[in-house]
Amino acid sequence: MWENFVFSVNVSLPLFILLFIGLILKKKNVFSDSFIASANTLIFNVALPAKLVLDTAQTDFTQNFDPVFLLLLLGGTTVFFVLFWVIGHAAIREPAKVGAFVHGAFRGNYVYIGYPLIQNILQVSGLPAEAMLASAFILPYYNVLAVIVLTVTNHPGEKINLGNVLKQIIKNPMIIGMLIGLPFSFLSVYTGFTLPGVITKPLSYLGQLVTPLALLVIGASVKWESVMANKKPVFWACFLRLVVQPLVMVPLAIACGLATQAVIVLYVVFAVPAAANVYIVTQKMGGDADLASGIVVLGIIFSILTITVGVFLLRTFGVV
Fold first, then answer.
1. What is the 3-state secondary structure (H, E, C) of the chain?
2. Of 1.10.287.610, 2.60.40.1180, 1.20.1530.20, 1.10.472.10, which CATH number belongs to 2-316?
3. What is the residue extent of each domain of the chain?
4. Whether the predicted pLDDT of 160 surpasses 70
5. N or C: at which end does the chain have fewer Cβ atoms within 10 angstroms?
């Protein structure tokens, strides 16, 4: 039991220590707002796509395609999205708050927090094929669902422009990175060709920036006052995001007989706190930005406990 507790702390706490360091550096004015904005641009447009190019190129997708995994990934997200919308509509009267509530409850920070969490749980340096498959499907799907709920709640009567949604997906640097890496994955499988070190090493160096820099920036962006302004909806959105979803999805994944790596990826997808994009996209589409920001902030704090407990339970029951 003690060994399992130590394992779970070693998995989750290093990530949150970096978040806390980022918060301290911002308080001490080591990180300025302009630096945070530039760092976000560097991560999103350069370092993360580089990591995804390399990880995709080095992944054998032919051995790990499981339709049940994808069904649980997308089906679970869809069911929770609809359920949270029903809950938000029933409990919250202001449409702008409903959109922010739903957005914060269904959309997790799968990339910046999820990727290192998967690597820590599985004790690997790269990402498994299931993690890359999840990225390819869940990231664009998050964008589609976000546009739907925020358009309907913030702009009633306005038609959803599917062309613009598709354009946003295609132009997403993360999607571009995976698309660049995919042909090299199949070349490796079917011809034995691998990218030379002169290409993989720079990509690897850039990819190594993602986890520490992203976590520091997320920590530096925390603003506690956004939580206090909307305490109840913020709490319930975080509870649905961090507790309800993994409690439903992990037993379901195990019951479906998924492999360990697939179960862990599903756990992470449905257990990580709300992504920073929840605030950014909600604000851009006229939703309640303060509520969205509060969900992001409290989710990060709350997840220190929920993820540690979740990993402990996964370890205790022999899932990992």
1. CHHHHHHHHHHHHHHHHHHHHHHHHHHCCCCCHHHHHHHHHHHHHHHHHHHHHHHHHCCCHHHCCCHHHHHHHHHHHHHHHHHHHHHHHHHCCCHHHHHHHHHHHHCECHHHHHHHHHHHHHCCCCCCHHHHHHHHHHHHHHHHHHHHHHHHHHCCCCCCCHHHHHHHHHHCHHHHHHHHHHHHHHHHHHHCCCCCHHHHHHHHHHHHHHHHHHHHHHHHCCCCHHHHCCHHHHHHHHHHHHHHHHHHHHHHHHHCCCCHHHHHHHHHHHHCCECHHHHHHHHHCCCCHHHHHHHHHHHHHHHHHHHHHHHHHHHHCCCC
2. 1.20.1530.20
3. 2-316
4. no
5. N
